[in-house]
Design goal:
Blueprint lengths: L6 E11 L3 H12 L4 E4 L8 H4 L20 H6 L9 H14 L6 E2 L4 E7 L4 E6 L3 E10 L21 E4 L14 E5 L3 H13 L2 E6 L5 E3 L7 H9 L1 H10 L18 H14 L15 H18 L3 H7 L12 E3 L2 H4 L5 E5 L5 E5 L2 E4 L3 E3 L2 E4 L8 H6 L9 H4 L18 E3 L12 H21 L4 E4 L1 H16 L30 H13 L5 E4 L16
Parallel strand pairs: 1-2, 1-6, 2-3, 6-17, 7-16, 8-9, 8-16, 9-12, 10-11
Antiparallel strand pairs: 4-5, 5-6, 13-14, 14-15, 18-19
Helix pairs in contact: 1-14, 8-9, 9-10, 14-16
The structure holds ligand NA7.
Protein backbone atom coordinates (compact mmCIF):
# COMPACT_ATOMS: atom_id res chain seq x y z
CA UNK A 1 0.00 0.00 0.00
CA UNK A 2 1.30 3.43 -0.88
CA UNK A 3 1.95 5.84 1.91
CA UNK A 4 -0.21 8.77 0.79
CA UNK A 5 -0.95 11.76 2.88
CA UNK A 6 -4.72 11.83 2.42
CA UNK A 7 -6.18 15.26 2.25
CA UNK A 8 -9.93 15.18 1.92
CA UNK A 9 -11.40 18.31 0.44
CA UNK A 10 -15.13 17.96 0.77
CA UNK A 11 -17.72 20.48 0.03
CA UNK A 12 -17.25 21.11 -3.69
CA UNK A 13 -20.41 21.28 -5.70
CA UNK A 14 -18.58 20.37 -8.88
CA UNK A 15 -15.15 19.10 -9.76
CA UNK A 16 -14.07 19.69 -13.33
CA UNK A 17 -11.39 17.43 -14.76
CA UNK A 18 -9.24 19.32 -17.27
CA UNK A 19 -8.36 22.98 -17.76
CA UNK A 20 -8.54 23.30 -21.51
CA UNK A 21 -11.04 25.51 -23.31
CA UNK A 22 -13.87 23.31 -21.97
CA UNK A 23 -12.76 23.17 -18.34
CA UNK A 24 -12.04 26.89 -18.21
CA UNK A 25 -15.51 27.81 -19.44
CA UNK A 26 -17.17 25.23 -17.17
CA UNK A 27 -15.36 26.78 -14.22
CA UNK A 28 -16.43 30.28 -15.20
CA UNK A 29 -20.04 29.35 -15.87
CA UNK A 30 -20.65 27.16 -12.83
CA UNK A 31 -19.03 29.69 -10.51
CA UNK A 32 -21.31 32.33 -11.96
CA UNK A 33 -24.21 30.15 -10.84
CA UNK A 34 -22.89 30.22 -7.32
CA UNK A 35 -21.34 26.75 -7.29
CA UNK A 36 -18.16 25.92 -5.47
CA UNK A 37 -15.95 24.49 -8.20
CA UNK A 38 -12.48 23.00 -8.39
CA UNK A 39 -10.63 22.25 -11.60
CA UNK A 40 -7.97 19.55 -11.58
CA UNK A 41 -5.49 19.63 -14.45
CA UNK A 42 -2.75 17.11 -15.15
CA UNK A 43 -0.57 19.53 -17.13
CA UNK A 44 1.74 22.12 -15.65
CA UNK A 45 -0.23 24.85 -17.38
CA UNK A 46 -3.75 25.52 -18.57
CA UNK A 47 -4.88 25.22 -22.21
CA UNK A 48 -5.29 21.47 -22.68
CA UNK A 49 -4.74 20.59 -26.33
CA UNK A 50 -3.16 23.99 -26.90
CA UNK A 51 -0.80 23.51 -23.99
CA UNK A 52 0.52 20.14 -25.12
CA UNK A 53 0.56 20.43 -28.91
CA UNK A 54 3.50 22.82 -29.17
CA UNK A 55 5.09 21.30 -32.22
CA UNK A 56 6.38 23.70 -34.90
CA UNK A 57 3.56 24.98 -37.07
CA UNK A 58 0.72 23.99 -34.71
CA UNK A 59 -2.21 26.11 -35.71
CA UNK A 60 -5.99 25.99 -35.56
CA UNK A 61 -7.86 25.25 -38.78
CA UNK A 62 -10.93 27.26 -37.80
CA UNK A 63 -10.61 31.03 -38.23
CA UNK A 64 -9.49 32.75 -35.04
CA UNK A 65 -12.46 35.15 -34.92
CA UNK A 66 -14.69 32.06 -34.90
CA UNK A 67 -12.52 29.82 -32.70
CA UNK A 68 -12.97 31.91 -29.57
CA UNK A 69 -15.39 32.27 -26.68
CA UNK A 70 -18.58 34.20 -27.26
CA UNK A 71 -19.78 34.32 -23.66
CA UNK A 72 -18.40 37.76 -22.88
CA UNK A 73 -18.83 40.59 -25.34
CA UNK A 74 -16.05 42.74 -23.91
CA UNK A 75 -13.67 39.81 -24.27
CA UNK A 76 -14.51 39.19 -27.91
CA UNK A 77 -14.36 42.89 -28.71
CA UNK A 78 -11.09 43.60 -26.92
CA UNK A 79 -9.03 40.54 -27.79
CA UNK A 80 -7.00 41.08 -30.98
CA UNK A 81 -6.11 38.06 -33.07
CA UNK A 82 -3.05 38.70 -35.20
CA UNK A 83 -3.69 36.11 -37.93
CA UNK A 84 -6.62 34.67 -39.84
CA UNK A 85 -5.84 31.29 -38.25
CA UNK A 86 -4.32 31.49 -34.80
CA UNK A 87 -1.08 29.70 -34.00
CA UNK A 88 -0.78 27.51 -30.92
CA UNK A 89 1.20 30.14 -28.92
CA UNK A 90 -1.46 32.76 -29.61
CA UNK A 91 -4.33 30.49 -28.55
CA UNK A 92 -2.40 29.60 -25.41
CA UNK A 93 -1.96 33.33 -24.64
CA UNK A 94 -5.70 33.77 -25.17
CA UNK A 95 -6.63 30.96 -22.77
CA UNK A 96 -4.29 32.41 -20.15
CA UNK A 97 -5.75 35.86 -20.69
CA UNK A 98 -9.26 34.48 -20.11
CA UNK A 99 -8.18 32.75 -16.90
CA UNK A 100 -6.65 35.97 -15.57
CA UNK A 101 -9.38 38.26 -16.79
CA UNK A 102 -12.10 36.29 -15.00
CA UNK A 103 -9.94 35.46 -11.97
CA UNK A 104 -10.19 31.73 -12.52
CA UNK A 105 -6.65 30.64 -11.78
CA UNK A 106 -7.02 30.24 -8.04
CA UNK A 107 -9.66 27.55 -8.62
CA UNK A 108 -7.43 25.48 -10.89
CA UNK A 109 -4.94 23.01 -9.49
CA UNK A 110 -2.18 22.19 -11.98
CA UNK A 111 0.14 19.17 -12.07
CA UNK A 112 -2.73 17.12 -10.70
CA UNK A 113 -3.77 13.99 -12.50
CA UNK A 114 -7.08 12.50 -11.46
CA UNK A 115 -6.48 8.77 -11.14
CA UNK A 116 -9.92 7.65 -10.02
CA UNK A 117 -13.47 8.92 -9.98
CA UNK A 118 -16.00 6.86 -8.03
CA UNK A 119 -19.68 7.55 -7.46
CA UNK A 120 -21.04 6.73 -4.00
CA UNK A 121 -24.77 6.12 -3.96
CA UNK A 122 -25.14 6.80 -0.24
CA UNK A 123 -23.51 10.22 -0.43
CA UNK A 124 -24.85 10.96 -3.91
CA UNK A 125 -21.38 12.26 -4.62
CA UNK A 126 -18.32 11.66 -6.74
CA UNK A 127 -15.00 11.04 -5.07
CA UNK A 128 -12.01 11.95 -7.19
CA UNK A 129 -8.53 10.90 -6.17
CA UNK A 130 -5.41 12.50 -7.57
CA UNK A 131 -1.98 11.09 -8.29
CA UNK A 132 -0.66 12.70 -5.12
CA UNK A 133 -3.38 11.09 -3.02
CA UNK A 134 -5.62 14.08 -2.57
CA UNK A 135 -9.31 13.28 -2.41
CA UNK A 136 -12.03 15.58 -3.66
CA UNK A 137 -15.73 15.06 -3.22
CA UNK A 138 -18.39 16.79 -5.22
CA UNK A 139 -21.97 16.26 -6.22
CA UNK A 140 -21.21 16.84 -9.90
CA UNK A 141 -18.27 15.59 -11.94
CA UNK A 142 -17.63 17.42 -15.20
CA UNK A 143 -15.30 15.59 -17.55
CA UNK A 144 -13.50 18.19 -19.65
CA UNK A 145 -10.78 15.69 -20.45
CA UNK A 146 -10.38 16.52 -24.13
CA UNK A 147 -10.97 14.57 -27.29
CA UNK A 148 -7.43 14.53 -28.65
CA UNK A 149 -5.52 14.40 -25.40
CA UNK A 150 -3.97 10.94 -25.29
CA UNK A 151 -0.98 10.78 -27.68
CA UNK A 152 -0.62 7.55 -29.59
CA UNK A 153 2.97 6.35 -30.08
CA UNK A 154 2.98 3.15 -32.14
CA UNK A 155 4.52 0.20 -30.37
CA UNK A 156 7.56 0.37 -32.59
CA UNK A 157 10.11 -2.19 -31.56
CA UNK A 158 13.50 -0.80 -30.74
CA UNK A 159 12.48 2.71 -29.70
CA UNK A 160 14.06 2.19 -26.29
CA UNK A 161 17.45 1.67 -27.98
CA UNK A 162 17.25 4.74 -30.22
CA UNK A 163 20.27 6.92 -29.49
CA UNK A 164 18.68 10.11 -30.81
CA UNK A 165 15.84 12.20 -29.40
CA UNK A 166 12.21 11.36 -30.02
CA UNK A 167 9.00 13.32 -29.46
CA UNK A 168 5.27 13.06 -30.05
CA UNK A 169 3.41 16.04 -31.55
CA UNK A 170 0.90 15.98 -28.69
CA UNK A 171 3.52 16.02 -25.98
CA UNK A 172 6.08 18.40 -27.41
CA UNK A 173 8.69 19.86 -25.04
CA UNK A 174 7.84 23.27 -23.58
CA UNK A 175 11.02 24.88 -24.78
CA UNK A 176 10.90 23.43 -28.28
CA UNK A 177 13.30 21.18 -30.14
CA UNK A 178 16.35 22.50 -31.94
CA UNK A 179 16.65 20.57 -35.20
CA UNK A 180 19.21 22.81 -36.86
CA UNK A 181 21.92 20.79 -38.54
CA UNK A 182 20.18 17.52 -37.72
CA UNK A 183 18.69 14.61 -39.62
CA UNK A 184 15.04 14.50 -38.68
CA UNK A 185 12.38 11.88 -39.33
CA UNK A 186 8.61 12.43 -39.14
CA UNK A 187 6.23 9.48 -38.93
CA UNK A 188 2.68 10.48 -39.82
CA UNK A 189 1.09 12.81 -42.33
CA UNK A 190 -2.19 13.82 -40.66
CA UNK A 191 -2.95 17.36 -39.46
CA UNK A 192 0.02 17.44 -37.10
CA UNK A 193 2.52 15.97 -39.55
CA UNK A 194 1.47 18.20 -42.44
CA UNK A 195 1.78 21.28 -40.22
CA UNK A 196 5.19 20.47 -38.77
CA UNK A 197 6.85 19.09 -41.91
CA UNK A 198 7.33 22.43 -43.75
CA UNK A 199 8.85 24.10 -40.69
CA UNK A 200 11.12 21.21 -39.81
CA UNK A 201 12.28 21.09 -43.43
CA UNK A 202 13.36 24.73 -43.23
CA UNK A 203 15.40 24.15 -40.09
CA UNK A 204 16.75 20.62 -40.33
CA UNK A 205 19.68 19.50 -42.37
CA UNK A 206 17.70 16.63 -43.77
CA UNK A 207 14.08 15.57 -43.35
CA UNK A 208 12.70 12.10 -43.98
CA UNK A 209 8.90 11.86 -44.09
CA UNK A 210 7.54 8.38 -43.44
CA UNK A 211 4.09 8.32 -45.02
CA UNK A 212 1.73 5.38 -44.63
CA UNK A 213 -1.42 6.94 -46.09
CA UNK A 214 -1.38 10.07 -48.22
CA UNK A 215 -3.87 12.61 -46.91
CA UNK A 216 -5.54 15.61 -48.54
CA UNK A 217 -3.90 18.81 -47.33
CA UNK A 218 -5.56 22.08 -48.31
CA UNK A 219 -3.60 25.32 -48.28
CA UNK A 220 -4.78 27.19 -45.16
CA UNK A 221 -4.43 30.55 -46.98
CA UNK A 222 -3.39 31.96 -43.64
CA UNK A 223 -2.46 35.64 -43.48
CA UNK A 224 -2.13 38.49 -41.01
CA UNK A 225 -5.49 39.64 -39.70
CA UNK A 226 -7.10 42.08 -42.10
CA UNK A 227 -8.27 45.09 -40.01
CA UNK A 228 -11.40 45.46 -42.16
CA UNK A 229 -12.31 41.81 -41.64
CA UNK A 230 -11.76 42.16 -37.90
CA UNK A 231 -13.86 45.30 -37.72
CA UNK A 232 -16.69 43.74 -39.68
CA UNK A 233 -16.71 40.62 -37.48
CA UNK A 234 -16.66 42.58 -34.28
CA UNK A 235 -19.54 44.76 -35.48
CA UNK A 236 -21.61 41.68 -36.27
CA UNK A 237 -20.54 39.27 -33.55
CA UNK A 238 -24.04 38.62 -32.13
CA UNK A 239 -25.35 37.56 -35.55
CA UNK A 240 -22.18 35.62 -36.38
CA UNK A 241 -22.19 33.69 -33.11
CA UNK A 242 -25.85 32.87 -33.57
CA UNK A 243 -25.16 31.76 -37.15
CA UNK A 244 -22.35 29.50 -35.93
CA UNK A 245 -24.57 27.92 -33.29
CA UNK A 246 -27.25 27.13 -35.83
CA UNK A 247 -24.86 26.02 -38.58
CA UNK A 248 -23.80 22.53 -39.60
CA UNK A 249 -20.29 22.76 -38.19
CA UNK A 250 -20.42 25.53 -35.59
CA UNK A 251 -18.67 28.26 -37.53
CA UNK A 252 -19.20 31.00 -40.08
CA UNK A 253 -17.77 29.28 -43.14
CA UNK A 254 -20.40 29.81 -45.78
CA UNK A 255 -21.57 26.59 -47.37
CA UNK A 256 -22.72 26.41 -50.94
CA UNK A 257 -26.35 25.27 -50.68
CA UNK A 258 -26.25 23.75 -54.18
CA UNK A 259 -25.89 20.09 -55.03
CA UNK A 260 -22.84 19.33 -57.13
CA UNK A 261 -25.18 17.42 -59.43
CA UNK A 262 -27.25 20.48 -60.26
CA UNK A 263 -24.44 22.44 -61.87
CA UNK A 264 -22.25 21.96 -64.95
CA UNK A 265 -18.77 20.44 -64.86
CA UNK A 266 -17.32 23.91 -65.46
CA UNK A 267 -19.24 25.32 -62.51
CA UNK A 268 -18.04 22.49 -60.30
CA UNK A 269 -14.42 23.17 -61.27
CA UNK A 270 -14.90 26.90 -60.64
CA UNK A 271 -16.37 26.18 -57.21
CA UNK A 272 -13.50 23.83 -56.30
CA UNK A 273 -11.03 26.53 -57.33
CA UNK A 274 -12.96 29.09 -55.30
CA UNK A 275 -12.80 26.79 -52.26
CA UNK A 276 -9.08 26.09 -52.78
CA UNK A 277 -8.50 29.85 -52.71
CA UNK A 278 -10.68 30.29 -49.61
CA UNK A 279 -8.46 27.65 -48.07
CA UNK A 280 -8.53 24.93 -45.43
CA UNK A 281 -11.83 23.32 -44.55
CA UNK A 282 -13.77 25.54 -46.97
CA UNK A 283 -13.34 22.79 -49.55
CA UNK A 284 -15.78 20.64 -47.59
CA UNK A 285 -18.48 23.30 -48.02
CA UNK A 286 -18.13 23.37 -51.85
CA UNK A 287 -21.42 21.52 -52.42
CA UNK A 288 -24.05 20.30 -50.00
CA UNK A 289 -23.54 16.72 -51.19
CA UNK A 290 -19.74 16.61 -51.18
CA UNK A 291 -19.84 14.17 -48.25
CA UNK A 292 -22.81 12.16 -49.42
CA UNK A 293 -22.46 11.83 -53.18
CA UNK A 294 -19.59 9.70 -54.49
CA UNK A 295 -19.41 11.37 -57.89
CA UNK A 296 -19.25 14.88 -56.51
CA UNK A 297 -16.68 13.79 -53.96
CA UNK A 298 -14.62 11.94 -56.61
CA UNK A 299 -14.48 15.04 -58.74
CA UNK A 300 -13.40 17.19 -55.79
CA UNK A 301 -10.74 14.58 -54.90
CA UNK A 302 -9.43 14.57 -58.45
CA UNK A 303 -9.36 18.36 -58.43
CA UNK A 304 -7.11 18.34 -55.35
CA UNK A 305 -4.90 15.63 -56.88
CA UNK A 306 -4.47 17.83 -59.95
CA UNK A 307 -3.33 20.64 -57.64
CA UNK A 308 -0.79 18.31 -56.02
CA UNK A 309 0.56 17.37 -59.46
CA UNK A 310 0.85 21.04 -60.36
CA UNK A 311 2.80 21.85 -57.19
CA UNK A 312 5.13 18.87 -56.76
CA UNK A 313 7.87 18.84 -59.36
CA UNK A 314 8.76 15.13 -59.29
CA UNK A 315 5.84 13.13 -60.81
CA UNK A 316 6.59 10.02 -58.72
CA UNK A 317 6.56 12.01 -55.47
CA UNK A 318 3.39 13.82 -56.59
CA UNK A 319 1.70 10.49 -57.20
CA UNK A 320 2.80 9.15 -53.81
CA UNK A 321 1.41 12.25 -52.13
CA UNK A 322 -1.94 11.90 -53.93
CA UNK A 323 -4.58 10.25 -51.76
CA UNK A 324 -6.39 7.42 -53.53
CA UNK A 325 -7.83 5.36 -50.71
CA UNK A 326 -10.50 7.56 -49.19
CA UNK A 327 -13.17 10.00 -50.25
CA UNK A 328 -12.08 13.60 -49.65
CA UNK A 329 -12.76 14.61 -46.06
CA UNK A 330 -13.56 11.17 -44.66
CA UNK A 331 -10.15 11.19 -43.06
CA UNK A 332 -9.82 14.55 -41.29
CA UNK A 333 -8.91 17.10 -43.97
CA UNK A 334 -5.58 18.77 -43.28
CA UNK A 335 -4.99 22.48 -43.54
CA UNK A 336 -1.40 23.54 -43.94
CA UNK A 337 1.00 26.06 -45.34
CA UNK A 338 3.48 25.04 -48.00
CA UNK A 339 3.00 21.32 -47.38
CA UNK A 340 3.22 19.98 -50.92
CA UNK A 341 5.82 22.63 -51.88
CA UNK A 342 8.09 21.22 -49.17
CA UNK A 343 8.62 18.07 -51.24
CA UNK A 344 10.38 20.15 -53.90
CA UNK A 345 13.19 20.85 -51.44
CA UNK A 346 16.45 19.00 -51.88
CA UNK A 347 16.71 18.12 -48.18
CA UNK A 348 13.31 16.39 -48.03
CA UNK A 349 12.67 12.72 -48.85
CA UNK A 350 9.29 11.00 -48.90
CA UNK A 351 9.33 7.34 -47.87
CA UNK A 352 6.26 5.28 -48.64
CA UNK A 353 5.92 3.01 -45.61
CA UNK A 354 2.86 1.29 -46.95
CA UNK A 355 5.01 -0.13 -49.71
CA UNK A 356 8.06 -0.59 -47.48
CA UNK A 357 6.74 -0.84 -43.90
CA UNK A 358 8.69 0.36 -40.91
CA UNK A 359 10.16 -2.79 -39.37
CA UNK A 360 11.71 -1.30 -36.29
CA UNK A 361 13.59 1.58 -34.80
CA UNK A 362 17.29 0.88 -34.70
CA UNK A 363 19.81 2.72 -32.49
CA UNK A 364 20.73 5.01 -35.39
CA UNK A 365 17.29 5.62 -36.86
CA UNK A 366 14.46 3.80 -38.62
CA UNK A 367 14.57 0.54 -40.56
CA UNK A 368 11.98 -0.11 -43.23
CA UNK A 369 11.68 -3.34 -45.20
CA UNK A 370 14.00 -1.89 -47.84
CA UNK A 371 16.39 0.59 -46.18
CA UNK A 372 17.84 2.08 -42.99
CA UNK A 373 17.46 5.83 -42.38
CA UNK A 374 19.92 7.53 -40.03
CA UNK A 375 18.24 10.05 -37.77
CA UNK A 376 19.15 12.37 -34.91
CA UNK A 377 15.55 13.27 -34.09
CA UNK A 378 12.42 11.17 -34.61
CA UNK A 379 9.04 12.92 -34.50
CA UNK A 380 5.86 10.93 -34.05
CA UNK A 381 2.90 12.73 -35.58
CA UNK A 382 0.98 9.51 -35.16
CA UNK A 383 -2.23 10.83 -33.63
CA UNK A 384 -4.27 10.16 -30.53
CA UNK A 385 -6.51 7.69 -28.78
CA UNK A 386 -9.27 10.10 -29.72
CA UNK A 387 -12.62 10.86 -28.12
CA UNK A 388 -12.63 8.05 -25.55
CA UNK A 389 -8.93 7.67 -24.67
CA UNK A 390 -8.80 10.03 -21.71
CA UNK A 391 -12.09 8.88 -20.20
CA UNK A 392 -11.35 5.20 -20.61
CA UNK A 393 -8.02 5.70 -18.88
CA UNK A 394 -9.63 7.55 -15.99
CA UNK A 395 -12.29 4.81 -15.97
CA UNK A 396 -14.95 6.41 -13.75
CA UNK A 397 -16.89 3.97 -11.59
CA UNK A 398 -20.60 4.70 -11.45
CA UNK A 399 -23.65 3.20 -9.80
CA UNK A 400 -23.27 -0.39 -8.55
CA UNK A 401 -19.59 -0.42 -9.38
CA UNK A 402 -20.15 -0.02 -13.11
CA UNK A 403 -16.82 0.78 -14.78
CA UNK A 404 -16.91 3.05 -17.79
CA UNK A 405 -14.23 1.04 -19.58
CA UNK A 406 -16.37 -2.09 -19.35
CA UNK A 407 -19.53 -0.28 -20.26
CA UNK A 408 -17.80 1.16 -23.33
CA UNK A 409 -16.01 -2.07 -24.26
CA UNK A 410 -17.89 -2.34 -27.56
CA UNK A 411 -17.71 1.40 -28.20
CA UNK A 412 -18.76 4.53 -26.35
CA UNK A 413 -22.36 4.69 -25.11
CA UNK A 414 -23.74 8.12 -24.27
CA UNK A 415 -27.04 9.90 -24.46
CA UNK A 416 -26.47 13.03 -26.58
CA UNK A 417 -22.74 12.78 -25.93
CA UNK A 418 -23.36 14.37 -22.55
CA UNK A 419 -24.24 11.67 -20.03
CA UNK A 420 -23.95 7.93 -19.52
CA UNK A 421 -26.40 5.46 -18.00
CA UNK A 422 -25.23 4.38 -14.56
CA UNK A 423 -23.06 7.48 -14.07
CA UNK A 424 -25.31 9.93 -12.22
CA UNK A 425 -24.33 13.60 -12.23
CA UNK A 426 -21.35 12.94 -14.48
CA UNK A 427 -21.27 15.18 -17.52
CA UNK A 428 -18.94 14.94 -20.51
CA UNK A 429 -18.04 18.00 -22.53
CA UNK A 430 -17.83 17.35 -26.28
CA UNK A 431 -18.11 13.63 -25.65
CA UNK A 432 -18.58 10.83 -28.17
CA UNK A 433 -22.07 11.03 -29.62
CA UNK A 434 -22.01 14.82 -29.85
CA UNK A 435 -20.79 16.99 -32.78
CA UNK A 436 -17.49 17.49 -30.95
CA UNK A 437 -14.62 17.05 -33.43
CA UNK A 438 -17.04 17.65 -36.29
CA UNK A 439 -17.49 21.21 -35.26
CA UNK A 440 -15.78 24.35 -34.16
CA UNK A 441 -14.87 22.97 -30.74
CA UNK A 442 -15.40 26.30 -28.97
CA UNK A 443 -19.00 26.52 -30.17
CA UNK A 444 -19.67 22.96 -29.06
CA UNK A 445 -17.95 23.51 -25.74
CA UNK A 446 -20.04 26.59 -25.03
CA UNK A 447 -23.24 24.78 -25.95
CA UNK A 448 -22.40 21.84 -23.70
CA UNK A 449 -21.28 23.91 -20.73
CA UNK A 450 -24.42 26.04 -20.91
CA UNK A 451 -26.59 22.94 -21.17
CA UNK A 452 -24.85 21.35 -18.19
CA UNK A 453 -25.17 24.56 -16.14
CA UNK A 454 -28.90 24.70 -16.93
CA UNK A 455 -29.34 21.03 -16.03
CA UNK A 456 -27.67 21.58 -12.66
CA UNK A 457 -29.83 24.62 -12.06
CA UNK A 458 -32.92 22.58 -12.94
CA UNK A 459 -31.98 19.80 -10.54
CA UNK A 460 -31.20 22.13 -7.70
CA UNK A 461 -34.21 24.35 -8.08
CA UNK A 462 -36.52 21.34 -8.29
CA UNK A 463 -35.07 19.43 -5.39
CA UNK A 464 -33.80 16.67 -7.64
CA UNK A 465 -30.77 14.70 -6.61
CA UNK A 466 -29.35 13.37 -9.85
CA UNK A 467 -29.49 13.14 -13.61
CA UNK A 468 -28.26 10.35 -15.84
CA UNK A 469 -29.03 8.84 -19.21
CA UNK A 470 -31.89 6.40 -19.47
CA UNK A 471 -30.61 3.12 -20.94
CA UNK A 472 -33.19 2.98 -23.73
CA UNK A 473 -32.73 6.64 -24.64
CA UNK A 474 -28.99 6.05 -24.78
CA UNK A 475 -29.42 3.02 -27.05
CA UNK A 476 -31.73 5.01 -29.33
CA UNK A 477 -29.25 7.86 -29.53
CA UNK A 478 -26.35 5.59 -30.46
CA UNK A 479 -28.48 4.06 -33.19
CA UNK A 480 -29.24 7.53 -34.50
CA UNK A 481 -25.55 8.56 -34.43
CA UNK A 482 -24.69 5.48 -36.51
CA UNK A 483 -27.61 5.94 -38.86
CA UNK A 484 -26.56 9.50 -39.65
CA UNK A 485 -22.94 8.46 -40.27
CA UNK A 486 -24.13 5.62 -42.51
CA UNK A 487 -25.96 8.10 -44.68
CA UNK A 488 -22.64 9.72 -45.59
CA UNK A 489 -19.41 8.69 -47.28
CA UNK A 490 -17.88 8.15 -43.82
CA UNK A 491 -19.42 4.68 -43.98
CA UNK A 492 -17.06 3.84 -46.87
CA UNK A 493 -13.77 4.54 -45.14
CA UNK A 494 -13.31 3.35 -41.60
CA UNK A 495 -9.52 3.42 -41.17
CA UNK A 496 -9.63 6.68 -39.21
CA UNK A 497 -9.61 7.91 -35.64
CA UNK A 498 -13.28 8.92 -36.06
CA UNK A 499 -13.87 5.16 -35.87
CA UNK A 500 -11.10 4.49 -33.36
CA UNK A 501 -9.38 2.39 -36.01
CA UNK A 502 -5.96 3.96 -35.36
CA UNK A 503 -5.69 2.33 -31.94
CA UNK A 504 -5.00 -1.41 -31.96
CA UNK A 505 -7.85 -3.32 -30.29
CA UNK A 506 -10.19 -0.34 -30.08
CA UNK A 507 -13.72 -1.14 -31.27
CA UNK A 508 -14.40 0.28 -34.73
CA UNK A 509 -17.41 2.49 -34.11
CA UNK A 510 -18.14 5.93 -35.54
CA UNK A 511 -17.91 8.23 -32.53
CA UNK A 512 -18.85 11.83 -33.34
CA UNK A 513 -22.38 12.98 -34.24
CA UNK A 514 -22.75 14.17 -37.81
CA UNK A 515 -26.29 15.52 -37.64
CA UNK A 516 -25.15 19.14 -37.54
CA UNK A 517 -24.39 21.54 -34.71
CA UNK A 518 -27.60 23.56 -35.13
CA UNK A 519 -29.87 20.51 -35.27
CA UNK A 520 -28.09 19.00 -32.31
CA UNK A 521 -28.28 22.22 -30.30
CA UNK A 522 -32.00 22.60 -30.99
CA UNK A 523 -32.58 19.02 -29.94
CA UNK A 524 -30.72 19.18 -26.62
CA UNK A 525 -32.34 22.55 -25.84
CA UNK A 526 -35.82 21.18 -26.54
CA UNK A 527 -35.14 18.09 -24.43
CA UNK A 528 -34.15 20.31 -21.51
CA UNK A 529 -37.12 22.62 -21.96
CA UNK A 530 -39.49 19.68 -22.00
CA UNK A 531 -38.26 18.32 -18.67
CA UNK A 532 -35.26 16.20 -19.72
CA UNK A 533 -36.89 13.45 -21.71
CA UNK A 534 -34.61 10.43 -21.93
CA UNK A 535 -32.91 11.20 -18.64
CA UNK A 536 -33.45 9.54 -15.28
CA UNK A 537 -33.92 12.21 -12.66
CA UNK A 538 -33.25 11.09 -9.11
CA UNK A 539 -35.46 12.18 -6.24
CA UNK A 540 -38.21 13.38 -8.52
CA UNK A 541 -41.13 14.74 -6.60
CA UNK A 542 -44.71 14.50 -7.89
CA UNK A 543 -44.91 16.23 -11.26
CA UNK A 544 -47.12 19.08 -10.09
CA UNK A 545 -44.58 20.26 -7.53
CA UNK A 546 -41.75 20.63 -10.03
CA UNK A 547 -41.29 24.23 -11.01
CA UNK A 548 -39.00 25.86 -13.49
CA UNK A 549 -37.73 28.24 -10.84
CA UNK A 550 -34.40 29.70 -11.82
CA UNK A 551 -32.61 29.96 -8.49
CA UNK A 552 -29.55 27.76 -8.39
CA UNK A 553 -29.78 27.20 -4.67
CA UNK A 554 -26.64 25.17 -4.10
P1 LIG B 1 -3.89 11.65 -37.21
O1 LIG B 1 -4.80 12.45 -38.05
O2 LIG B 1 -4.45 10.47 -36.52
O3 LIG B 1 -2.66 11.23 -38.13
C1 LIG B 1 -1.74 10.27 -37.70
C2 LIG B 1 -0.78 9.96 -38.81
O4 LIG B 1 0.20 9.05 -38.34
C3 LIG B 1 -1.43 9.29 -40.01
O5 LIG B 1 -0.80 9.75 -41.17
C4 LIG B 1 -1.13 7.82 -39.76
O6 LIG B 1 -1.12 7.02 -40.91
C5 LIG B 1 0.25 7.92 -39.19
N1 LIG B 1 0.62 6.75 -38.41
C6 LIG B 1 0.09 6.33 -37.26
N2 LIG B 1 0.71 5.21 -36.84
C7 LIG B 1 1.64 4.92 -37.77
C8 LIG B 1 2.59 3.88 -37.92
N3 LIG B 1 2.68 2.91 -37.00
N4 LIG B 1 3.40 3.89 -39.00
C9 LIG B 1 3.28 4.85 -39.92
N5 LIG B 1 2.40 5.87 -39.84
C10 LIG B 1 1.58 5.90 -38.78
O7 LIG B 1 -3.21 12.54 -36.06
P2 LIG B 1 -2.84 14.09 -36.08
O8 LIG B 1 -2.15 14.38 -34.82
O9 LIG B 1 -2.17 14.46 -37.33
O10 LIG B 1 -4.24 14.81 -36.09
C11 LIG B 1 -5.22 14.54 -35.10
C12 LIG B 1 -6.28 15.60 -35.14
O11 LIG B 1 -5.82 16.77 -34.48
C13 LIG B 1 -6.63 16.10 -36.50
O12 LIG B 1 -7.46 15.27 -37.18
C14 LIG B 1 -7.25 17.45 -36.20
O13 LIG B 1 -8.59 17.30 -35.79
C15 LIG B 1 -6.44 17.93 -35.06
P3 LIG B 1 -2.45 6.26 -41.42
O14 LIG B 1 -3.29 7.33 -42.01
O15 LIG B 1 -3.10 5.67 -40.19
O16 LIG B 1 -1.99 5.25 -42.37
Amino acid sequence: MQNFEIETSRGYDAVVVGAGLAGIYALYKLRQQGLKVKVLEAGSGIGGTWFHNRYPGARCDIESLDYSYSFDNDLQQEWKWTERYASQPEILRYVNHVADRFELREHIQLDTKVVSAVFAEDDNAWTLTTDSGQVYQAKYAVMATGVLSVPQVPSTTGLEDFTGEWYHSGDWPNDGVDVRGKRVGVIGTGSSGTQMIPLLAEQADELIVFQRTANFCMPAQNRPMDPDVEQEWKATYPERRQFARQSGFGHNQVANPKSGKDVTAEERQAEFENRWQLGGLYMMRAFKDILTDKDVNNEASEYVRSKIRSIVADPKTAEELSPREMPLGTKRLCSGTGYYETFNRENVTLVDVKESPIERVIPTGVRTSTADYDLDVLCFATGFDAMTGALNRLNPVGRDGRELRDYWAAGPRTYLGLTVNGFPNMFIIAGPGSPSVFSNMVTSIEQHVEWIADAIEYLESNGLTSIEADFEAEAGWIEHVNEVANGTLYRDFKATWFYGANVPGKPVVFMPYLGGVGNYWNRITRIAQEGYEGFLLGGRRPAESISNSSSAGI
